[in-house]
Amino acid sequence: MTSNSESLTLAATAAAAERAAMAASHDGTPPTGPDGGAAGEGARHEVVIAPGRGDRMIDWRELVDYRDLCLFLIWRGIKARYAQSVIGVGWAVVQPLFSMLVFTVVFGKLARISSDGVPYAVFNFVAMVPWTYFSNAVSDGSASLVTNAGMISKVYFPRLILPLAAVAAKLVDFVIALALLAVLLVVYRIVPTWGVVTLPLLTGLMVLTAFGMATWMTALAVQYRDVQHAMTFVLQLLMYSAPVVYPASLIPNRYELLGWTVNPQWLYALNPMVGVIEGFRSALLGTRTMPWDFLAIGSVSAALLAYSGLRYFRSREHVFADVA
User: Fold this and answer.
1) pTM for this structure?
2) Which strand (E) or helix (H) includes residue 289?
3) Which end of the chain has fewer surrounding CB within 10 Å, N or C?
4) What is the C-alpha separation between 38 and 288, in angstroms, rounded?
5) How far is 96 from 237, CA to CA, in rounded Å?
């Protein structure tokens, strides 16, 4: 096995050997192998690992072939999170719940940040649910190659499975937090709007954003350990750059700069999580109309983030086994 970027090609030369042996049994000639030698004990399977096509972003067929490994890694990630845990899956709601309580006291009561006419606690929790998923998925995804260094240096499998499984495993926590959010809506007697039908679209954009950033970060972290040390700090900065503790309506929509009129909200929406969070609030709380402009800009940003992340991941894949 080489450590280069590779795709697995199975050359089952045994089939040719068996055909030769069958032919020999009919015409009486000694069976021969595929190279003309003796068959029988000479029948062998040959595994060839060759460099893949550089322009191929994702080898879907290979991912399908390794789907059992991907499902196993997802299950292992879920099980490892709650193994030997006293409250088990309760940890999925502890983080957003306690963050909501702290933010409600600090930003809702003391700083009196606007909550667009709804109780600040539920206003903040609606944002914490997608943000907690994004934060944890990026954090675990960025560490996926380093924590599995022993595996990737010993056996071949599509490396992309590791960040993909880390991002997918966090969807379990997301669903559990959504269930708690439904309880909060009942307690506060808030009826979701018709926009609730867009939740699958918002969730897809959220997952795409987390996956794109995770591929970038994991490819960087495997070579530069500084990335892992900086992840907590970076994610905190990103949280305050998204409308988690304040509404996006606080961002002005018109600004004069050197004689030009610019729209700061459109620049703000380059962060795909802005559209996701404001979309959740629109769908579940009705604090605003569905922010299609934010979602359109954020979708383009998320697609570019995922595309560039995959390109960089593929370009560095050949050194993962050596530097991990």
Assistant:
1) 0.80
2) none
3) N
4) 77
5) 17
Q: Is 288 exposed, middle or buried (0-12, 13-18, 19+ CB in 10 A)?
A: middle
Helices 292-316 and 272-285: crossing angle, nearest 10°?
140
Q: End-to-end CA distance of the chain, in Å? A: 16
CB atoms within 10 A of CB 70: 19
Structure confidence by residue, pLDDT tens digits, 213-242: 999 999 998 888 888 888 888 898 889 889
> Structure tokens of 111?
């700083």
Calculate the CA dihedral of residues 301, 304, 305, 308 and round it to 10 degrees: -160
Tokens at residue 55, please?
């322009």
Cα angle 164, 165, 166 (rounded to 5 degrees) comes to: 90
Return d(Cα 33, Cα 2) in angstroms, integer.
27
Please state whether 286 falls in left (phi above 0), alpha (psi between -120 and 50) or beta.
left
